[in-house]
Write a structure and sequence with these properties.
The complex is a heterodimer of chains A (757) and B (198).
Chain A: E1 10-15, E2 18-23, H1 28-33, E3 58-61, E4 68-69, E5 80-82, H2 86-99, H3 117-125, E6 143-144, E7 149-151, H4 161-169, E8 175-178, E9 185-188, H5 201-205, E10 211-213, E11 226-231, E12 240-246, E13 249-255, H6 269-273, E14 288-291, E15 294-297, H7 300-318, E16 323-327, H8 333-345, E17 350-352, H9 370-374, E18 378-382, H10 386-389, H11 391-402, E19 407-411, E20 423-425, H12 428-434, E21 442-446, H13 451-461, E22 468-471, H14 478-483, H15 495-503, E23 509-513, H16 517-520, H17 524-533, E24 536-541, E25 553-556, E26 565-568, E27 574-577, H18 590-598, H19 609-621, E28 650-655, E29 679-682, H20 684-690, E30 697-702, E31 705-714, E32 722-726, E33 742-749
Parallel strand pairs in A: 1-5, 16-17, 16-23, 18-19, 18-21, 19-20, 21-22, 23-24, 24-25, 28-32, 29-31
Antiparallel strand pairs in A: 1-2, 3-4, 3-5, 6-7, 7-10, 8-9, 11-12, 12-13, 14-15, 14-25, 26-27, 28-33, 29-32, 30-31, 30-33
Chain B: H1 2-20, E1 46-48, H2 63-67, E2 73-79, E3 91-99, H3 108-112, E4 118-120, E5 135-136, H4 138-141, H5 166-171, H6 184-192
Antiparallel strand pairs in B: 1-4, 2-3, 3-5
Classes of the chains: A alpha/beta (757), B alpha+beta (198).
Chain lengths: 757, 198
């Protein structure tokens, strides 16, 4: 090693007799990993940094009289470290004895038992007995910390990982350490329930069983679980996750710690907890065919032949333009590819994935990675907040702003102030002004909804240095569906044109795959009118959604945990989707359905699975299409947001909420408390104008449509003149008021006392 | 004829062995009216015990099922509620099932149990006509509420046992010398047993 020329930023030291060189400033815990030596840690976490609280990482450094903590001692040149010897073992066993003084040792009933760091290190370094004769302190067990988390105060070793996660990563600053000494406990600072979009992560970083998930509580032991790594398909971020299944039921999901490129090792609560719907008794289990106004259960063979017959006769009678298919955003790449392959082979060109408000998924040629987002000097957010659309991506934004000093500019935000510093502007022109002059790397995050706004952004962005663009969508595989060709070509109809044609009676057969336009399209009434006019509407879904209830043929589909394939996330990474669950007996994946349909068309040459994989990989590997925001292929769509009609009232803005969209979270009662209330969010000015306070219930009236019983939420940071409604909530569908319309507040019912939101 | 007479001696010799057994002690018993006394540590059908106050000892920890070499035990835990407190502490077994056809009666479950909930009794008569009926669930494994044994772990003000270290103390309430009197079915068996003391 001495022969190597010494670089100024490298430090040479010896760990357990092995010479290593690591960058200057590396901590001993990290340096020891280079010689595959694990130093026990509780309070230290690679993503949270050192805290020096638990003292279990003691190591011997030659020349220092006492043992040193490995997690907070940086290496220095010529250091000789021993991580394993008698002195170190004695030190660690003393620390463990102290950590266990008040630990209840109720491992048999602890959810962490079997995968607990305290258990493992006590086995490795502990003494097995204690000199402390006094009784253990008694603290409350099973404390309800919030809608997702249960706290066992006795098991806590006060490493403060959860407090630091809340502070450094989520930046919600809700958890604190209360009281001192043996009485210290984890609690929320305000005493309010612990609630934000990333709470589940604290159960994973907790090295003991103090913080556990409510949905997993006492359900299983770790050794019962069958683990599969897959990609989360609940939003377009594409976090890697572990799905743990016990006898056919998904019990929990865990993050993948090494997934630095995408999730950074974290999961949002929706990705983590919204898994109960797979086992819901409300799932459709048989193909349903509507005859004389009622659904009848039929077999798959009949379903395929009815579907094929409808397509054949429609093409024969009115041409291929009378047939269409919408979907792909919730399918795998393979399914999306085969969907367009099959329909194009039949001559059908009316294909689109855009069933909701999102109009564009591709970020153009300057699409960036999450790592680049984290390093940006300035981040511009236009449209809906990524906090609700792509939550784990929002953690990167919070990191960029709070830790790397980036400037956050939000254009016309619908929601209140985020928990990091930001500049709110109303127009793109103001955003250009607010852009710091020295910004070398600019990240632009757009929701892909308003194409006019997109075009304005694209124009502004041409002047920004080191531009990286991101489109946060509402459908997980929207970008994949686009890459696979689920966009109408020149002359074909897109979703809005198809719906317009349907209203005129020009569309005979429409097949919808995993989409629910009645709930998610920007305007419910015309969408409903269009679907009502379609003689043969096929819907493949897991549940009887608002759209499926209008269908002629409903096909029971498999969920993402129940099939394999690939998905493309919003940064363009092609990620594996692995099967971890067995689907209900008669559910088929959309791919299997399309194969079944294709059997009825002799003229279609089916590709072999190798050919299919090759085609899909080939399309994925293509460089992104260079069209910018709101241009090229997308521009054919009708303007998604009509100009606001000048009338008295508040402009309606629909925004997303993590647990509302997608509809699947409505089918798991365990996460009922996480579902958003039908909030009508107002700025402080408007609230004062109408005499409203948080918790009041109001009805909103707009063009004769009444949206009943909305809960007022006063958000001080909101612009005046708008009311923000949560989209995608079944039952209180915000899209029943047309987008951009003006709503009047009627029927105010005051709450007894103001309610915090 | 002479040759036949010659064989009488051989016949008498053979019959003498047969008749000699008439005066020896009989090894057969009148099962099922008379039952044999087993070795004191015989491993038979399981039972799930209770504490004297009627609470179930089982905390649903699944250590028995993980110790089971035959994979015969299925346990699914659930949470105790203040209104419905099945066992001391926070957790109880919502489902507890043993496949007695799969079981090899090794007693590892008994060894692994931290609360002495599952024990093997000397009862061995499980014959039935259907395979499915050999899956014993809580309805057949649990002893009746009146047949509880030993004091339950101390309850704290919030209803949580002080610690499982008390288990060792509870364990000492079981007298090894008395054999299976410590179990409910052992007790029943004692009263059922007729004749033939060891």
């Amino acid at each position: 090693m001495s022969s190597t020329p010494t670089q100024p930023d490298l430090v040479h030291l010896t760990i357990d007799g092995v010479a290593v060189e690591v960058p200057k400033g590396t901590l001993i815990v990290e340096a020891a990993k280079t010689v595959k030596q694990e130093i026990p840690v509780y309070c230290y976490h690679p993503k949270l940094g050192p805290a020096g609280l638990c003292r279990v990482c003691l190591v011997e450094v030659e020349g220092m009289p006492k043992l040193q903590i490995g997690c907070n001692t940086p290496v220095s040149d010529g250091m000789v470290v021993h991580t394993q010897n008698a002195k170190v073992d004695t030190g660690r066993s003393m620390i463990l004895e102290l950590l266990l003084v008040n630990h209840p040792l109720d491992c048999p009933i602890c959810d962490k038992g079997g995968e607990c760091d305290l258990q493992d290190y006590a086995m490795a370094y502990g003494r097995g007995s204690s000199d402390v004769a006094d009784a253990k302190t008694s603290k409350p067990k099973g404390v309800d910390l919030g809608p997702t988390i249960v706290l066992d105060e006795e098991r806590c070793v006060v490493c403060q990982r959860c407090v630091r996660f809340d502070d450094i990563i989520a930046q919600e600053n809700q958890l604190v350490l209360k009281d001192r000494g043996a009485r210290d406990i984890i609690a929320t600072a305000t005493g309010e329930p612990y609630r934000h979009n990333f709470t589940g992560n604290v159960t994973e970083i907790c090295p003991v069983g103090a913080l556990t998930s409510k949905t997993y509580r006492f359900k299983s032991r770790p050794w019962d679980l069958q683990r599969t790594q897959t990609s989360c398909t609940q939003c377009a971020v594409g976090c890697q996750q572990m799905v743990d299944v016990r006898s056919g039921t998904p019990l929990r999901t865990m993050s993948v710690e090494s997934d630095d490129a995408i999730s950074d090792g974290w999961l949002c609560d929706r990705g983590r907890y919204n898994i109960g719907f797979y086992a819901s008794p409300e799932r459709i289990t048989q193909p349903l065919y509507r005859k004389d106004g009622e659904f009848h259960q039929i077999g798959w063979d009949d379903a395929f032949s009815l579907w094929a017959k409808a397509i054949k006769s429609s093409i024969a009678a009115n041409g291929a333009a009378s047939v269409g298919a919408i979907g792909g955003g919730r399918l795998t790449n393979e399914e999306a590819f085969f969907l367009q392959y099959l329909f194009r082979a039949l001559g059908v060109e009316n294909l689109d994935w855009r069933a909701g408000t999102q109009r564009q998924a591709g970020p153009g040629a300057s699409g960036g990675t999450y790592a680049e987002l984290e390093r940006a000097d300035a981040i511009v957010i236009a449209g809906e907040s990524p906090a609700e659309r792509a939550p784990v991506m929002d953690l990167r934004i919070r990191k960029a702003v709070a830790r790397n000093g980036a400037t956050l500019i939000r254009i016309a935000p619908a929601e209140g102030t985020p928990n990091v510093a930001c500049i709110d502007v109303a127009t793109v022109a103001q955003a250009i002004e607010a852009m710091p002059s020295g910004a070398k790397r600019v990240a632009l995050v757009w929701d892909g909804v308003d194409l006019q706004l997109g075009a304005e952004l694209a124009k502004a962005a041409s002047g920004w240095a080191g531009l990286r663009t991101y489109v946060t969508g509402e459908q997980a595989n929207a970008r994949g569906a686009e890459t696979m060709g689920m966009l109408p070509r020149e002359g074909a109809m897109d979703t809005l044109a198809m719906f317009a044609a349907a209203r005129e009676g020009r569309l005979d057969v429409l097949s919808l795959f995993g989409v629910n336009p009645v709930l998610h399209a920007s305007d419910a009434a015309p969408t409903r009118a269009a679907l009502e006019r379609i003689p043969f509407l096929v819907v493949s879904d897991l549940f009887m959604t608002e759209t499926a209830a209008m269908a002629t043929l409903v096909l029971p589909a498999k969920g993402a945990f129940e099939k394999g394939g690939t998905t493309t996330n919003l940064t363009g990474d092609v990620l594996p989707v692995n099967q971890s669950l067995q689907a209900p007996e008669s559910a088929l994946s959309d791919f299997e359905m399309l194969i079944g349909l294709a059997q009825h068309f002799d003229e279609v040459a089916l590709p072999t699975s190798e050919e299919l994989d090759e085609r899909v990989i080939g399309l994925c590997a293509k460089p992104p299409v260079a069209d910018g925001f709101g241009a090229g292929r997308y521009a054919s769509a009708a303007p998604s947001r009509p100009a606001p009609r000048p009338s008295d009232g508040l402009a309606v803005v629909v925004h997303s909420a993590v647990f509302a969209g997608g509809g699947t979270s409505a089918h798991d009662e365990r996460i009922a408390s996480l579902r958003p209330l039908p909030h009508a969010s107002l700025g402080a000015q408007d609230a004062a104008l109408y005499g409203l306070q948080s918790g009041d219930r109001i009805d909103l009236e707009c063009d004769g449509v009444l949206l009943r019983d909305m809960v007022v939420a006063v958000r001080p940071g909101m612009r005046p003149g708008i009311v923000a409604l949560t989209g995608g909530l079944p039952g209180r569908a915000a899209n029943s008021l047309s987008a951009g319309a003006r709503a009047r507040v009627v029927n105010v019912r005051k709450a007894a006392a103001p309610v915090g939101v | 004829m002479r040759k036949n007479l010659y064989n009488v001696g051989a016949i008498l010799k053979g019959l003498s062995i047969t008749f000699a057994f008439m005066f020896k002690k009989k090894p057969t018993i009148e099962y099922p009216s008379v039952k044999k006394q087993h070795a004191p540590r015989f491993h038979g059908l399981h039972e799930l015990r209770r504490y004297a106050d009627g609470k179930e000892r089982c905390i649903g920890c699944e250590l028995c099922s993980s110790a089971c070499p035959a994979n015969a035990i299925t346990v699914i835990g659930a949470e105790n509620t203040p209104e419905d407190r099945t066992s001391p502490g926070e957790r109880h077994a919502a489902r507890y099932e043993i496949d007695e056809l799969r079981c090899i009666f090794c007693g590892m479950c008994e060894e692994a149990c931290p609360t002495d909930a599952i024990v093997l009794t000397p009862r061995f008569e499980m014959a039935d006509y259907r395979r499915g009926s050999f899956i014993y669930a809580k309805d057949r494994l649990l002893v009746p509420p009146g047949a509880g044994l030993g004091p339950a772990p101390d309850e704290r003000p919030n209803g949580i046992p002080s610690d499982l270290g008390r288990v060792a103390e509870v364990k000492s309430t079981m007298d090894i010398a008395q054999g299976y009197s410590a179990t409910n079915r052992g007790e029943t068996l004692k009263t059922q047993r007729k004749g033939l003391a060891p």
